[in-house]
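Key result, reporting period 2: structure in, sequence out.
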């Protein structure tokens, strides 16, 4: 991760809402040869809030999260992390800042058990040997702190876990490593009703601990269940970033499909 090119101590432009975002994106564009995947995208990601990233197929959601995760380099645009100008040039840079991305199928290694997965690449050692006891304790404590009680043994290979349990372990891993921003790509896409509810509860708990969560989802029920705010991409442009109270499903669908909506949100019961 390099400081900004000019070496200036740039601070982020201030936000209209007066909140200091954990991550601020301004003017992010990304082209692949002649294909313009993102155009001039602005987005603030706030600690303690779930931001849902919505958009039709091909709108640019994956490209945007990959720019944040250090997989794609934006063609232009700027990013601030906690008020500091940054260039995230690799997944390692993203990890060093505290950004964890949970991809639907790639989050865990099937052949390893829960503890091994949670400590993969960051194993604890004691007297030149793996400190299994300490890793088991920490893994168990973290799962308990998130009220994940459905796994039988933390020494189970993750291949034997249900989809919801796998997502839970991936979320617990982010908590264990003190991630500040957790990006989740379609976390409930392969899950049934009960498991979806469990994972959404965990997403909420993550945010309630002060973690910023960015969740990509096509599922409007999930989005309205868990998100505090929704950002909508349309053909690579950010057409709206609004608190959930100002939106309803029809507005989000209008924004996703046409890039605009003239509707006013219908009042609905609060989530509490
Ligand atoms: N590596 C790449 N090379 C060329 N074009 C790409 C590449 N990755 C993405 N694109 C293009 O960028 C645009 C945005 O793609 P992206 O995958 O971000 O969409 P998405 O919103 O995630 O869609 P979906 O919901 O279908 O996953 C698409 O037109 C896509 O074809």
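The corresponding designed sequence is given below.
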């Amino acid at each position: 991760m390099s400081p900004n090119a000019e070496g200036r101590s740039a601070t982020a432009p201030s936000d209209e809402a007066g909140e200091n975002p954990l991550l601020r994106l301004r003017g992010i564009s990304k082209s692949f040869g002649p294909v313009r995947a993102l155009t001039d995208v602005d987005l603030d990601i706030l600690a303690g809030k779930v931001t849902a990233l919505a958009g039709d197929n091909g709108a640019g959601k994956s490209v945007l999260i990959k720019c944040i995760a250090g997989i794609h380099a934006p063609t232009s645009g700027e990013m601030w992390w906690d008020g500091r100008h940054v260039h995230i040039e690799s997944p390692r840079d993203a990890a060093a800042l505290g950004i964890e991305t949970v991809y639907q199928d790639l989050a865990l290694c099937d052949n390893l058990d829960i503890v091994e997965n949670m400590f993969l690449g960051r194993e604890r050692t004691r007297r030149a040997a793996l400190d299994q006891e300490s890793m088991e304790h920490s893994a168990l404590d973290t799962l308990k702190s998130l009220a994940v009680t459905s796994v039988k043994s933390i020494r189970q290979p993750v291949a034997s876990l249900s989809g919801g349990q796998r997502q839970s372990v991936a979320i617990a891993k982010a908590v264990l490593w003190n991630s500040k921003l957790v990006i989740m790509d379609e976390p409930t896409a392969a899950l049934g009703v009960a498991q979806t509810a469990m994972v959404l509860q965990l997403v909420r708990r993550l945010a309630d601990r002060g973690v910023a969560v960015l969740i990509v989802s096509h599922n409007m029920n999930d989005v309205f269940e868990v998100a505090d705010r929704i950002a909508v991409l349309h053909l690579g442009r950010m057409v709206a970033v609004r608190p959930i109270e100002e939106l309803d499903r029809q507005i989000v669908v209008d924004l996703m499909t046409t890039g605009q909506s003239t509707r006013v949100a219908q009042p609905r019961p609060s989530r509490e």
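The two ends are 40 Å apart (CA to CA). The CA atoms of residues 25 and 79 lie 5 Å apart. This case is discussed further under Risks and Mitigation.
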